[in-house]
Amino acid sequence: MKIAVLSDTHDHIWNLRKAIQIIKEQKCEVIIFCGDFCAPFTAVILAESALPIYACFGNNDEDQFAISEKLKAVQLWPLTKEFAEVELESKKIAFCHYPKLGKLLAGTGDYDAVFHGHTHKAYQEQVGKTLLANPGSICGIISGKLAPASFGIYDTLSSSYTSVSLLD
């Protein structure tokens, strides 16, 4: 199973639509979203993928009630505030918004993979037996400057993770 891992859209709907197109082309079956939808309409656009979505809030998701309501309207999985864990294809996966929490979760050794957002910088590392990865950001901004927009794809069959650039 291929799982698309996204974070930090910050309302960049054009990059989000581009990511959804790639997600469909790559035949991903699930989306994990690591926070910072920002505006409620972003959740509706994400739902255009027609895939199951596991998501958590980020620090810029001010109107959590409205985002939750939009997600209910499009029948997505409920959002979590801190972190969530899910088992997909016999892989234990945790996800959150903040990197410190992500590192702590990975350090427990309880998961095959842990994903987080917040920093907007894509990276991956192995923490013991656990893959720890940040998909980067859909918005393509780091500290107020343009940066590569990206997301990740985790393959449960091979336990591999690939960063996907949204550059043309």
Give the gist of this structure.
This protein has 168 residues and is α/β, with parallel strands linked by helices. 24% of the residues lie in helices and 33% in strands. The two termini are 26 Å apart.
Structural descriptors:
single chain; alpha/beta; Purple Acid Phosphatase, chain A, domain 2; 13 strands; globular
Description:
The chain has 168 residues and is of the alpha/beta class. The protein has one domain (2-165): Purple Acid Phosphatase, chain A, domain 2 (4-Layer Sandwich), CATH 3.60.21. Helix content is 24%, strand content 33%. The chain has 4 helices and 13 strands. The strands form 3 sheets. A 6-stranded mixed sheet has the order 4-3-2-1-12-13, with no helix packed on it. It has a 5-stranded mixed sheet with strand order 5-6-7-9-8, with helices on one face. Strand 6 (91-96), helix 4 and strand 7 (113-115) form a beta-alpha-beta unit. The longest helix has 13 residues, at 13-25. The model has no long low-confidence stretch (mean pLDDT 92).
Portion of residues in beta strands equals 25-35%
**Average predicted local confidence, pLDDT:** 92
Largest sheet: 6 strands, mixed
Helix-strand category: alpha/beta
Q: What is the overall shape? A: globular
- Give the helices and strands as they follow along the chain: EHEHEHEEEHEEEEEEE
Q: Which fold name is given in CATH as the topology?
A: Purple Acid Phosphatase, chain A, domain 2
Q: If you compute it from the alpha carbons, what radius of gyration comes out, rounded to the nearest whole angstrom?
A: 14 Å
- CATH architectural designation: 4-Layer Sandwich
Oligomer: single chain
